[in-house]
């Protein structure tokens, strides 16, 4: 008999898709065996970071941005064709997310080589770092729902250890609740995945999109999918730290080493956002399910036969809650990382609101524009918040504290550090010409185009709160009289160098914004183009296989 | 009949897990998490369908020619196997952490942990 499970030729682009994952996997294994050689460990880690950055840059160029680039490439693991094997997919959206994570990850890695936190666990720091990067990269690249669950777990396992890393009583307690919450979330994730498999008979995202768009041809009853998508959304909202799932963030962010907190805020949060965008728009948008929700906030008519209005309503409510809870919480904190942790809850609300508008609107142009706005804002959040958490690391390793009562006059003590933090704070607030200005401007523009008055008011309140807590953080720690801790501080030049490079990136992204916007536009187009995604993955018709077996059953 | 029994089992496991999860003793919380993740595994297994499978419901079998034996859906079994391994690892980690919590706080009572901010 002729089998359709034949190998497809593997091209260079195909191999590029898996390259970043292989690099961090090999680096994690290598650094694990170099436990006794700190210098070699750090050198291998740095080399892996550079190689990772190059691989991501190659994906950006050869798959997405070059004039004759295909825009999307797939790697069928083990040469099993979709939907049977695990498919890895790199398209504009994955590439955009990977690029953000690579920039911040390399910065955090260089930062980590200077001063490793903690005592006994020191030799496991770099392997865990690479496993965290592996989980994040796998989640961005996988095209399979269950495989997404697996990469989430890889990412979480590393982050559990990091939250418990410093080993004090508060750290252990924070880690226990973080682990318990995420174990519960993993069970819910499994329930959602199992339900989707029972409803549609597939877990491959492209196959899923294909089947949901034409349920009659596959004999499906797609209605349960809306509820199952709701379960998955709640899991992703936990990872993204959206209200009402934000409560674990302040303690976990305080417990983890600052250079890891930068990654938790800059990378694992974005995995939640990425999964929401990918599943809602690429996979489930075409599902023919009538959802009728009264949602007076957005003027555009909510109709259509897809679960998107449901997603949109949920995201708008969660985003609004996040902006208020995060902003109000940040104003009253008594330490730098407390302010930034709450600020991180608020900022992710600014990402969720445009995604929510994209899901509720029926206007395709506005939908694409709203996703672009969310991505640009996410980019700014990764750069600025990553820089700020790394700055907390610098301040903590120099002065031994990050509480406002013990800080003051840092600006005079280290002008480069102060300038970097100042630039990142201004980017959070949204001052032109920094990257934050465009993020915030686009989000307001989206709300205005959707003629959503209450959303604009909400965004204004959120922005005012941002100004309030950024100013307060700055006044309390960088101005005022020098404290003893600040006077005795020795500030590491390499750490400040990393901060300076990130600050320069924020300025460069703001000044040369056109190519960044085009990249975000490509990413948003990729997120919305289900057909291209299905074509690239090319899930075979299951009925073809039945035919080839002779049909003697 | 099997479907009803499975549904009852999954429901009972979730109920028991949730009950334990809300206890004050950390070890019971870990037990609750372990039971809930097992409940999710049983549910996942049931989602593959409990009817004897043919090449129609298990398409991979079609590639193996004639004489396909009756079998349950192998995909969910592979998924559950993965989920079980991950769940065991996580439960072990949670147990180690609760031991560490006991070492550092001298208690496993959730409410007392909260007081020692």
UniProtKB/TrEMBL annotation, chain A:
One of its GO terms (cellular component) is plasma membrane. It comes from the Archaea. The keyword RNA-binding does not apply. InterPro entries: CPA3_Na-H_Antiporter_D (IPR050586), NADH_UbQ_OxRdtase (IPR003918), ND/Mrp_TM (IPR001750). GO terms for molecular function: NADH dehydrogenase (ubiquinone) activity. The chain crosses the membrane at residues 16-35, 42-64, 84-111, 123-142, 148-168, 175-198, 225-250, 271-290, 310-332, 339-357, 369-395, 416-435, 455-474, 494-513. Residues 143-284, 313-466 form the NADH:quinone oxidoreductase/Mrp antiporter transmembrane domain. It is a multi-pass membrane protein. Its main location: membrane. Pfam families: Proton_antipo_M. It is found in: Cell membrane. Keywords: Cell membrane, Membrane, Transmembrane, Transmembrane helix. One of its GO terms (biological process) is ATP synthesis coupled electron transport. The keyword S-adenosyl-L-methionine does not apply. This is Na+/H+ antiporter subunit D. It comes from Natrinema saccharevitans.
Automatic annotation (TrEMBL), chain B:
The chain crosses the membrane at residues 6-22, 29-55, 75-97. InterPro entries: CPA3_antiporter_subunitC, NUOK/Mnh_C1-like. It is found in: Cell membrane. One of its GO terms (cellular component) is plasma membrane. Keywords: Cell membrane, Membrane, Transmembrane, Transmembrane helix. It holds the Pfam family Oxidored_q2. This is Cation:proton antiporter. It is a multi-pass membrane protein. Gene3D superfamilies: 1.10.287.3510. It comes from Natrinema saccharevitans.
